[in-house]
Each structure stands twice: as structure tokens, then as C-alpha cells.
Design brief:
Strand content: over 45%
Distance between the termini: 6 Å
Number of helices: 1
Helix content: under 10%
Order of helices and strands: EEEEHEEEEEEE
Shape: globular
Number of strands: 11
């Protein structure tokens, strides 16, 4: 596993999400939920929608803007139909205010 430094914690306001690329080109979404940073794949598993660009974050749930399916960003698990396949999640470590993601 590798570790990527992506951004500073303050670049992701509380209750928001941000799109980032891992060094291998993988598109991910970073979420600030109650001061904790989480990372998942950015593409909805139901339809190829960007969660960070087309979705809405409500607490720890991200809702896809295409068909209103949703996921728990802390686990990647689907929460609402039509989503049935979990999102890939990534381990996040914050070091000196910098968001690091293992991939």
C-alpha cells in the first residue's frame, strides 16, 4: 500500500466534500463529517455519476444526484435504492493538518 498527501484538512469545510485524484489516477471523494475526514471512490456504483460533483452530503450520507441512491461515507455501504454495491473506501490519516490517503 502507498500513501498519498492530497490536501490540507481546512481545504474541506465541515459538512462538505471534495474531489481528488490519487497518484495512480483513481478519482476519489473526501468528506468532512463532524471534523473527521473520510475517503471513498468518487463514482456511484449504480450509475457513473461523480458523488463529489453531482451529489449532496447530509451528515455521513452522500446522495447521488442521478437517481437519489445513497451511501454511508464512513463505511461505503449503500443506504438507499437503487444503490446496492458498496463504494470502495480508503484509510485516511491526518498528519500535521495534511490529509493522507492509503491506496
Amino acid at each position: 500500500m502507498s500513501m498519498a498527501e492530497l490536501c490540507r484538512v481546512e481545504d474541506i469545510a465541515l459538512g462538505t466534500m471534495r474531489q481528488e485524484f490519487l497518484p495512480d489516477g483513481t478519482l476519489i471523494a473526501l468528506y468532512n463529517v463532524e471534523g473527521h475526514i473520510y475517503a471513498t471512490a468518487d463514482t456511484c456504483t449504480h450509475a457513473a455519476a461523480s458523488l463529489s460533483e453531482d451529489g449532496t452530503l447530509k451528515g455521513r450520507i452522500v446522495e447521488c444526484g442521478f437517481h437519489n441512491g445513497s451511501f454511508d461515507v464512513t463505511t461505503g455501504e449503500p443506504c438507499a435504492s437503487p444503490c446496492t454495491v458498496a463504494l470502495t473506501t480508503y484509510r485516511v490519516e491526518v498528519v500535521d493538518g495534511v490529509v493522507n490517503v492509503k491506496y
